[in-house]
Design a protein that fits this description.
single chain, mainly alpha
Length: about 240
């Protein structure tokens, strides 16, 4: 048997294990996505900005651990079609910002340094964290589960995997928002529908920066336009 044939058999033997590994990580992401808001926001009532900090650290460590365990380089993922990912992220951010302005009433907001702080913390940091957990991670994990399989080599197969990845992102978004008391109602439909839009940049490019850019744009607009919103920027009082 040739060396190439042996390598192919070895890869084929690892594929089921790789897929199972990604399923376990997806399950872990769902558990994390629900537990953080349910425990820290709903049950403990942690102060909002402190909560965002804990959430950001938890998601950052989780994403790093997933990439390391999966043998993926975060730097290489970020370099993948980065110009297109950035452009799509900014375009979708603009679309989401317009959605915020048209669907939410303008409310009061702080001034000066307090506003700048909220834009950076609640807008950028929290928005990037949401985009990373709710879209980038599940989409990339699903594609990693199918890495090396013949289905990835066909356009129709790639489209089918993309549909599964989007479904995983929708599930993650729904489960995460159900961790907040006020989203355990028909209200959860709004962020779930929004996920279809903010997932596009990462879904198209498989670059983790696309969805976080789009999500951060939406959060920044919510801070500036509808600071006291009961839809965006949970947890709500």
């Amino acid at each position: 048997m040739t060396t190439h044939a042996l390598e192919h058999r070895a890869l084929a033997a690892r594929l089921p294990t790789r897929a199972a590994q990604q399923v376990r990580w997806l399950a872990g992401g769902l558990a994390l996505g629900f537990a953080v808001p349910f425990v820290l926001a709903d049950q403990i009532g942690l102060q909002r900005d402190l909560y965002y900090g804990v959430y950001a650290v938890a998601v950052g460590v989780f994403f790093w651990a997933w990439a390391r365990a999966s043998g993926l380089s975060i730097a290489e993922m970020i370099r993948r079609r980065w110009m297109l990912a950035t452009g799509l992220g900014l375009a979708v951010a603009g679309l989401l910002s317009l959605m915020v302005i048209r669907t939410e009433d303008a409310t009061g907001r702080p001034d000066g340094a307090a506003l700048v702080g909220q834009v950076l913390w609640r807008g950028v940091v929290y928005g990037v964290t949401d985009g990373l957990l709710l879209s980038a991670f599940p989409i990339l994990a699903v594609f990693a589960a199918f890495a090396g399989r013949q289905i990835r080599k066909r356009r129709s197969g790639t489209v089918a995997i993309g549909a599964i990845a989007l479904a995983a992102s929708l599930l993650m978004t729904g489960v995460y928002h159900l961790g907040y008391n006020d989203f355990r109602s028909s209200k959860v439909a709004r962020p779930t529908a929004g996920d279809v839009v903010w997932s596009v940049p990462t879904l198209v490019t498989l670059n983790p920066i696309g969805a976080p850019i789009a999500h951060a744009g939406m959060h920044v607009t919510a801070v500036l336009h509808s600071n006291e919103t009961n839809t965006f920027l949970p947890p709500h009082e």
